[in-house]
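Researcher: Go.
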Amino acid sequence: MTQQDTELQLIATHTQNWVERMIMKYNICPFARREVERRSIRYAVIDESKMHNVLEALIKECQYLDEHPETETTLFIIPRGFEGFYPYLDLVDIANDLLIDQDYEGVYQLASFHPDYCFEGEPMDEPSNYTNRSPYPTLHIIREVSMELALANYNDPESIPERNIAFAQKKGSDFFEKVLAGCMRKTSH
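Model: Structure:
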């Protein structure tokens, strides 16, 4: 394994740690546990930093999901080139448009996560921002059919964001910073 391969694997491990130690453990996404336990989450680290290369890789990842129904979802991790939150938001907008252009509207949707994620109108230090803060800029490619099914079988899905905000307010930013720092250790679990 090359040093570059080792680095990319470490980035994937950090992200997997985040899913398990933050998103699943604290029930930020009530649908994550099932997929973690089934090992149906793909962690795709994109070793590109230019917008057009990242977008090309995104479509290839959608094609991968088309061909691999056993993979429920992909965390499309972009460790370089989009460290700034606003360039990342530009990428998200263009990526959503690209999904429509490539006839993936209604097939896949994107959820966005970033180390500096900030909800519109909120201060950067607002604890609720941590519900969308990840170790690296990440697009979560979600199968829409699966999401519709999960939401239909979940009592009161509209309460999820409010519950997460209340949890984040209760725990505070320092708590989440420590959890995120712990995710950056080399090993999983």
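Model: Helices lie at 3-24, 32-38, 51-67, 85-101, 144-152, 159-171, 173-183.
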